[in-house]
Amino acid sequence: MYLTKEEERIYDGECGWTNQVCMKILVRLGELFGAEKLIPISSAHVSGVSYKTLGDAPIEFLKALADADGKVKVRTTLNPQSLDPEHLSKRLTVNIREKQLDILRQFDRMGVAPSLTCTPYYLRKPVRGSHHAWAESSAVVYANSVLETWTNREGGPSALAAAIIGKAPDYGMHKAENREPNIIVNAEARLRNETDFGALGALLGKTLQDKIPVITGLGTASETNLKQLGAALASTGMTNMFLHKPAQNVRKLEKTTVEDRDIKETIEELSTSSATKPDLVFVGCPHCSKGEIQQIAGLIDGKKVKAGTEFWVCTSCHVKQKTAREVEKIEKSGGHVLSGVCTVVSWTEMLGIKTIMTNSAKTAHYAPTLNKAATILAPLEKCLETAFEG
Amino acid sequence: MRSNTLKGRVIVEGHCKGEALVSKQPLSFLGGVDPADGKIIEKNHDLCGQCVKDKILCFPHGHGSTVGSYVLYSLGKKNLAPKAILNETADPVVVVGAIIANIPMLDKVEIKQIRTGDTVDVDACTGTAQISRRKES
Hints:
The complex is a heterodimer. By secondary structure, chain A is of the alpha/beta class. Chain A is built from 15 helices and 14 strands. In chain A, 41% of the residues lie in helices and 15% in strands. A five-stranded parallel sheet of chain A has the order 12-11-10-13-14, sandwiched between helices. In chain A, strands 3-2-4-5 form a four-stranded parallel sheet, with helices on both faces. The radius of gyration of chain B is 13 Å and the shape is globular. Chain B starts with a strand and ends with a strand. Chain A binds chain B through residues 21, 24-25, 28-29, 32, 47-48, 53-58, 60-61, 135, 155-158, 161, and chain B through 11-12, 30, 35, 65-67, 69-71, 73-74, 77, 90, 92-93, 95-96, 99-100.
């Protein structure tokens, strides 16, 4: 790999241990994937924030980076944590709260503010064609496919290394030739709502491996539906991008078709419970946009959450602040708007939650293993009918 | 005593000698190795119950969450890390883990040639692993 003189000095340790170890990560990964150089990035998005998934091991490493004057060089956002200060925090132990806080403190020391969201693109929309180093697979697929910004699927440590150096190795999705579709998916199924879009993603992830599909038949799908498609696609497979508009020169590509019954079967597979009264009804994976919060507040319209059921809406602190009126409505109904937290990486088992109903195919995919919960996958309207009286 | 030298690609430089612990299966460090004692806890893994401490750890490749890289760092801090890692195919989780924990590492190594209990002399500067076996079994 070609390194500039300055990059070489960093690699040799002349700019301190943190910069050296981060440069080594980028160079070795670059060599592994055939990069010839590093390229500047406009932002980084770092995963690996929840104390529940991280455990104690990473805190030491984050602390070592911060102790050796690690500072990020580009705008850096953070994935959600395992609790929110308003609702879940008081139901958990002091040890969990302190350890989670310690993780955020180390990021803060490195110049990373607690944005705590899996949808950083709602905080600031990245410029089309710009290069980034994002972890969080759902955001990576959304960036490449909907925002048309360019990023590989980084891991937590490599995204942090890229943030500290301000560069990423030039391979994979950073190269135009790797962003061409190599399979046509004819979506003949009727995609009625966000759950059907998510199911399409979950199904394609399992079958496409890392191929880039051009999907026909999506019509003018909303960005919310494409977000659900991409999040599920990333959770069951290695695909980093899909095309949702007609593409040129694809006539010779391999073709596959998705029909109504494929979607129906996928939703059935992702629903492991037949319970009519789930412990938790959850919306907001990936985190809700302003529009989604407004939609939920509108639909619940004065109704009350049923006794014995919890209703959670997850979003970023940023979106929560911008939708204060709607948030108040949801809270008055007995629901909770949790900010900065992700249900899948939160302590649901400790809260006694054994069944989760959600409109997110990604959550339905992960909850049986990560939350040890049975799942019911259904669209928003159905989720609200189940959570609310009347 | 028979000896055999395998070649590989250097991922993390270093030089060390130790006893091989060999798996035919991919290994996930997050959830697969206990950071408290270095024991492999991945269910149904052929090395389940074995400790990675001071071993020349040989497995085809890593899998699972990128948080696994931090587990290798934590093992290193507690002196529970393997002495070296030999892989068939390096993957980002193990590569990053070996870099931050400073564990010598080679990939593109034909690990089928190595058996648990062999003494392996890893030269992760030139990219060779010399295997010594006390007797044929």
